[in-house]
Amino acid sequence: MNDEADLTSRVLYEDGDHSFIWLGADARSGKGAVQTLQYLILDKGRGWLLDPGGVHLFARVVAAVSRHVPLDRIDGIFFSHQDPDVSSGIALWLGVTPARIYISGLWTRFLPHFGIVDPGRIQPIEEAGKGVRLGSGAELSFVPTHYMHSPGAFSLYDTRAKILFSGDVGGGFFPEGGETAFVDDFPAHLPVIQGFHERLIASNFVARRWCDLVSRLKPEMIAPQHGAIYRGASVQGFLSWLSALKCGTDLLDRFYGA
Ligand SMILES: [Fe+2]
Ligand SMILES: [Fe+2]
User: Fold this and answer.
1) Which ligand gives the minimal distance to the CA of 151?
2) How far is ligand 1, taken at its centre, from the CA of residue 165, in Å?
3) What pLDDT, in 10s, does the model give residues 103-122?
4) Domains identified in the chain and CATH numbers
C-alpha cells in the first residue's frame, strides 16, 4: 500500500445534520477479489448505505458502519446495479438492518438468487421516483447510468453534499500497493481506469449522455465503487475524458481479436 495513502474511513462532507462518509478500504480486498469502496450517508442520525458489497466484506463493512450509526437506523441501501461485488450481501444486510433496498427494477427478480429476500423490502428505483428526501430536507437523486456497464444502472447524487456516487463509472483497479484515496492528478490516474472503461462501458454514445447529465449537476466529488475518489479539477478532467472515450461497441473488433 502506498505510504502516502491513508485508506482509513474519511468524512467527505459534514454539516450539522448531514454527512457523507467513505468507509475505508480493506487491504486484503485486493487478494483475489476486486477492490471495492463503500459509502455511508448520515442524515439526522439515520443512515443510507451505497453498494455495501458482497459476503466476504460483510463483517468489515458492518464494523465500519457501526462506528458511525447503529445498524437499526439504516433506512436505505442503494445498489447501483446487480453485480455480486455490489449486492451479493443483500440477505445479510436485510437481516441486520430494517432498510429498504433501492435498485433498478430490471434486477429485482434476480436478487433472491443471492439468498432469502423479502420482496416487500425491495423498491424498484423507477417506481420510487427521481429520488428520496431525507429528514433534514437533503435529497438523494437517482441518476440514470444505463449501459455503464449494466443495462439497468443508476448513480446516486447527494444534492446537499454535492457528491455523486457513480457505481462502476470512474472505477478502476490499482496495482497492488499503489492505492490512493483520492484522484488529484487525473492524467496520472488514467492507467488505473482506461482499460476498465474501454471494456465495460457500452459505447461512447451512452458515456457522453451520462457525462452531459452529470455535468449539469456540478458535483464537487465523484465517488466510485472501485478505485479512488475524484475531487477538485479531477472531476472535470474525468468527465471530459469519458465523454470523448471510444469504448465498448466502438472497439468491438478489438474484443473479437480482429
Ligand atoms: Fe459492475
Ligand atoms: Fe463493481
Assistant:
1) 1
2) 14
3) 999 999 899 898 888 999 99
4) 10-255 (3.60.15.10)
